[in-house]
Every structure is written in C-alpha cells, then in structure tokens.
Design goal:
alpha/beta, Rossmann fold, binds iron/sulfur cluster, 18 helices
Length: 457
C-alpha cells in the first residue's frame, strides 16, 4: 500500500512478511490525523467513573463538552460523575488568569453537591497561562475538608497514555488515606474495569461465587472511600493494563500489593482470570468453586454460541481499539466464533504488547500502531474485512465502506465482559455482519453509478 506516511513505516507490519518488530508508544506524527485523544481525555476517561466525586474541568467549555459522559460507566448509587462541570474559561481569564474562577467554582460546586472528593483537570490553556491549580486545590481542600486533587493533564503534553499515568498518580494520592472498611483476607482490587454497561456487576457475581471480596473497583462504579481503603487488599487484578499498570506498580512499591494482568473478554481469558485469582490465594475450596463456576457457565454458553459460529465461519475482522490487551482478547474471541482477524491495531500499545499480539495473530494479519482513517480504510479494502471492531471514531469508517461494525470502546451500551458478555458479543457480531443492509449498499452504488452515467450522457 502507498497511502501511509513514510515516517510511520515501523508502526505497520504484516505478520509472516515483515521481520522487524512493530514500534509502539511513539507520539503521533503531524498530518497523520491520529485516532488518539489528548492527555486530558486520557486522564478523564480513567477517573470519570468515580461516581461520588466532583469532576471539574478547568478550561474552556469545549474540553468539558468533548468528554461529557464519555464512558457508559454505570453506577449503583450516586451519579455525580455524569455531570460535566467546567470553569468555562474565556478571553479575560486567559489575559488575567483563571485561579479566582476556579476557586469560586470549587466552592459553589462543593457546597451544592457535597462530594466525597474533587478532581480538578488542568487543560491546555491552563498550562499555557500558568494558573497555580495545585495551590487553589490545596486551599479549597483545607477549607472544605475533602480531598481536592489536581490532575495536571494539559492536552498538549504527550499522548493519551500519559493521561492514564497522570490519572493513576491522582488516585495514588487518595489511596492509603482511610482504614475504616472491613477487609476479608481474600480481598482484591479490580483495576481497569470501568463498569461499561454494568460489566463490573457481572464480574462481581463470579468473584462472589468463588468467595473473593472486591475491596475497591478502580474505577468502574468507583467510590472515594473504597479507593482510600484500597491499600489493604491482598491482590490487585489489572484489566486494561494500558491505563492501570502504573497504579498497580505504584501500589506494589508502596504497599507491597502484588498484581496480575487479566482480561475479562472471551471464554479463555475470563476463565484464566478466575483461575489466576484462585491460584494466588492457594485455597483448594476456592479453586474447586472456580472450576464449578467455569463448568457451569460453559455448559450454557458453548451450545448457545454454535449457531453464530456456523453463520460466521470464514468471515474477516478488522480490530482497532485503545489498548493491546483488548485486541489480544478480541482476536481469540473472534477465532472462537469462526472469524479470522486480518487487521489488529491499537492507539496505545507499546512494543512489548505488539510482540504478544503478533504471536497470536495469523500470518497475513496487518498489525498497526496509532493509525488514521486513511490507513484503516485502505487496510479494510485490501483484506476484504466484513467486520470492523472499534469505537466511535471507527464507526463511520466501517459504515462508509459498507461493512458491519461492533462497538467495543468505552461509549458502548452492551455488556461484553464475562460469559454473558461473550454471548452478547457473538450476537452483536452476527447481527451486524449478516445484516441485509449491506446488500443494499451494492445496489445503491450501482444505482448511483447509473444516475451518474445517465447524467453524463
Ligand atoms: S487538546 Fe487541549 S484544548 Fe483540546 S480537548 Fe484536550 S485539553 Fe482541551
């Protein structure tokens, strides 16, 4: 293909053809129109699901509007996270500073909503004008007697992944500040599940059945008190390692809490996650319960997947998602329902992640880091993919090319984690790939061509 920028040549490879290692973690190249979001957005998506905290975006209204209700992160209680508060900085604040505006906004909002903590996000313009966000937060924290945490995530200072790290550091400042929760000896923190479409509740059901307490969920259905107590768990179970591995490493260093990396997507990875947790506790009763849960779930799920597998046999998928762990799980889950992945890319994978992704992909699969719409469209045409799995920015690419699309990003409203999620996923893929609408696409193009031809005559 000729459509990609030469500076990106080490970020695209075809398995079985190219012998170099795919490079990840690089800043986006100007002109590439990357699908990545900014640093601020990275921090916002990680912290957003903490439902009893105030999330105040210090910046122009656009930054807050762009990330308003950005995840389908559900809460079993308060829903303060779903409001997008902003200091609405204007020209006069850019000239004279926005600290007073921030101070007033924090006072007004904490009085009105009585949050358990406040996160204050610094955006590009705040970094440029040099507001002292930290000192305003410190002052309001003392006056209101709640943690007020500055999230110094100016959009220009790196990639979305840097925003994840900044969010992890913000959470680390809360962890270890309370000891009042009751903790079982078999307790875990879940890191990196965001309770999209209620997925955390599915997982919580499995953990309950094997006798494990979830001390803190960071951050899906998150609560400030749970985060403050998280240093007392025995194990950190990290999903979406791209966003949360930094916090897991910090907690290991500071509190000696070990961590394991898991994925809750697909049969294999979901079962492995439960087995790994049971193995960690070294408790035979827990291991037996885990075997029962897996057996019980599979006895229902496998027969239910059969019709979808038959209908989807031989179809081709393109994957472009946020993190590499999700891509790896997707390749395996698609294989289980008869679909071959021929494009696998991510926004935030690193070189090591791509080595792992490459080992599980088939020969001929195109692997790509930090891609853009032109490249992705070209790859779809080249491979003849019938299905695109991505997020809100990839949806139009799929529909313009006239192929099925499955939303696997943080805006989605369908639970895809766990055994129930696998069945939802198979159904969703089946419905989109076999939709009769794609037949009309050919007819429509044909009609359009006929109209154009007759107009030209
Ligand atoms: S790049 Fe800067 S201005 Fe744009 S949304 Fe991110 S923080 Fe706001």
């Amino acid at each position: 293909m000729t459509a990609f920028l030469q500076e990106r040549k080490n970020q695209i490879l075809t398995k079985g053809k190219d012998s170099f290692e795919l490079e990840g973690g690089k800043p986006s190249i100007a002109g590439s129109v990357s699908q990545r979001a900014c640093v601020f957005c990275g921090s916002r998506v990680v912290l957003y699901p903490i439902a009893d905290a105030l999330h105040l975006v210090h910046g122009p209204i656009g930054c807050a509007a762009y990330t308003w209700d950005i995840r389908g992160a559900m809460s079993s209680g308060p829903e303060l996270h779903r409001s997008s508060f902003s200091t609405d900085l204007r020209e006069k604040h850019v000239i004279f500073g926005g600290e007073k505006q921030l101070y007033r906004a924090l006072h007004e909002l904490t009085d009105k909503y009585r949050p358990e903590a406040a996160f204050v996000y610094s955006t590009c313009i705040v970094g440029v004008i040099g507001d002292d966000v930290r000192s305003v937060c410190k002052r309001v924290a003392a006056e209101k007697n709640i943690p007020v945490i500055p999230v110094m995530a100016e959009g220009f200072q790196g990639t979305k992944k840097d925003g994840y790290k900044i969010a992890c550091d913000a959470m680390a400042s809360l962890i270890g500040t309370d000891d009042s929760k009751e903790v079982s000896p078999q307790s875990i923190n879940i890191l990196g599940d965001f309770n999209l479409a209620g997925e955390l509740w599915i997982l919580a059901g499995y953990y309950k059945r094997i006798g494990v307490q979830i001390l803190a969920s960071i951050t899906g259905d998150g609560r400030v008190k749970d985060v403050r107590n998280a240093h007392r768990a025995s194990l950190n179970v990290v999903q979406c390692s791209g966003s949360m591995i930094h916090l897991a490493k910090t907690m290991k260093e500071k509190y000696g809490i070990p961590f394991i990396k898991v994925s809750y997507f697909g049969i294999e990875d979901m079962s492995d996650a439960l087995y790994e947790v049971a193995k960690f506790f070294g408790d035979e009763t827990m291991m037996n319960k885990t075997r029962e849960v897996v057996k019980d779930e599979l006895s229902r799920l496998l027969p239910a997947l059969e019709p979808y597998k038959k209908a989807l046999q031989g179809k081709i998928a393109a994957i472009y998602v946020g993190g590499a762990f999700k891509a790896i799980s997707l390749v395996k889950a698609l294989r289980l329902i008869g679909i071959k992945t021929m494009i696998a890319g991510t926004q935030t994978g690193n070189t090591e992640d791509y080595k792992l992704l490459k080992t599980i992909c088939d020969d001929g699969c195109i692997l790509v880091d930090d891609s853009n719409p032109i490249e992705l469209s070209e790859f779809v045409k080249q491979t003849g993919a019938n299905l695109f799995i991505g997020g809100v920015k990839e949806r139009p690419i799929a529909y313009k090319l006239g192929i099925g699309f499955c939303d696997h990003n943080h805006e989605r409203k369908l639970a895809l984690a766990g055994y129930e999620g696998m069945l939802n996923f198979a159904r969703e893929v089946y419905e989109t790939v076999t939709s009769p609408v794609w037949k009309l696409k050919t007819t429509h193009s044909h009609l359009l061509a006929t109209h154009v031809n007759s107009a030209l005559r």
